[in-house]
Amino acid sequence: xxxxxxxxxxxxxxxxxxxxxxxxxxxxxxxxxxxxxxxxxxxxxxxxxxxxxxxxxxxxxxxxxxxxxxxxxxxxxxxxxxxxxxxxxxxxxxxxxxxxxxxxxxxxxxxxxxxxxxxxxxxxxxxxxxxxxxxxxxxxxxxxxxxxxxxxxxxxxxxxxxxxxxxxxxxxxxxxxxxxxxxxxxxxxxxxxxxxxxxxxxxxxxxxxxxxxxxxxxxxxxxxxxxxxxxxxxxxxxxxxxxxxxxxxxxxxxxxxxxxxxxxxxxxxxxxxxxxxxxxxxxxxxxxxxxxxxxxxxxxxxxxxxxxxxxxxxxxxxxxxxxxxxxxxxxxxxxxxxxxxxxxxxxxxxxxxxxxxxxxxxxxxxxxxxxxxxxxx
Length: 377
Ligand code: NAD
Ligand code: DAU
Description:
- With 377 residues, the protein is α/β, with parallel strands linked by helices.
- The chain has one domain (3-373): NAD(P)-binding Rossmann-like Domain (Rossmann fold), CATH 3.40.50.
- It has helices spanning 13-25, 65-75, 89-94, 96-119, 182-201, 223-232, 252-265, 282-296, 326-332, 340-353, 355-363, 369-373, and strands at residues 4-8, 30-35, 55-59, 79-82, 129-135, 205-210, 212-214, 237-240, 246-251, 271-274, 279-281, 308-311.
- The protein has a 7-stranded parallel β-sheet, sandwiched between helices. The protein has a 3-stranded mixed β-sheet with strand order 7-9-11. It has a two-stranded parallel sheet with strand order 8-12.
- Helix 1 links the parallel strand 1 (4-8) and strand 2.
- Helix 1 packs across helix 7, helix 4 runs parallel beside helix 5 and helix 6 packs parallel to helix 8.
- The structure holds nicotinamide-adenine-dinucleotide and 2'deoxy-thymidine-5'-diphospho-alpha-D-glucose (DAU).
């Protein structure tokens, strides 16, 4: 079946993996990557697919309602996968307004445009889908009742050799929303708008809440790419607090695969949590990164351990995230494919092999790519 799908935020980290997967896997679909190219958008993330006939890049702000609606009409859009957002917690602490504007008003603009466009058609919502990508941070922070870690109560194929849980409670789909940062408050608000559009207008929506992603093309302000680059260049590694906070890591291509399955087979009005039962304390992840970078660069393993520098904690720093993704696994058959150790090895290798990508990001040169390659296309 032919489809015309807008993927917002497709020049960012996760969005670029989703765009790549859809463009390559579904040549019969028209994939419209809508992105305003903020500091986090990088067209080099899409270089390998930019000439594919089923791909179109559109530089557009999701808050620009008139342009979004016109694009939907022009391209006869029947699906939206909405990832565009401000995504970095530390930035949200410094500048909450931008987060409210993009994440809340931008999502509202996408919802309203989809609603008006689809309601104008004879078949209305039939065959249509508005899929909103959200985060586990909306559920707030979990307690760490097992600081040393215990065997997780659930068995899953992909996790890691380390395979520990740091508490008994996990984020489930029916959990109360308790966001703590301006970022997660804005994402929570956008999730409420998505559900309100289903309940009020019947818009065929789906929401998913995923744990921390890692992998190629992540902007180096986030823990994993920042630290890989710093270890490579022997710069200090700023660990917030004592490094005891726990995050649940998922390889980005596994998230993209989940998005594919849910977009096609997920039930309208449902929520699915996405994660791989892969909890790690930050300090343990950092040690794995140091050992992996050192080994791959031919340095003695652990040679760079002294780069660890404990700094003032993040304000309101959530202690533990841990996703229960059994609903998705049971109902739609998705499972993560990679063990964390394999995923980290792949990721470190990618950043070491793609120093030019990293240099273009850190120098700001990546922002010239649109003018050089796309203007006038
Ligand atoms: P990112 O910051 O790497 O990319 C965001 C993209 O959105 C960029 O390309 C940026 O240019 C674009 N964008 C921002 N504001 C825009 C606007 N007003 N109009 C159009 N485009 C705009 O983000 P990411 O880490 O890839 O996250 C993508 C989505 O997934 C977000 O909604 C985030 O909340 C969610 N999420 C992220 C993670 C994670 O670990 N990174 C985990 C769970 C959920
Ligand atoms: O859980 C999903 C969320 O994961 C997504 O919704 C967010 O968009 C994404 O950015 C991520 O949020 P985190 O705040 O968990 O990710 P970050 O990479 O910023 O930080 C991971 C952990 O590492 C967190 O406990 C803070 C810590 N940290 C981070 C940085 C950048 C440090 O100790 N030092 C650092 O320099």
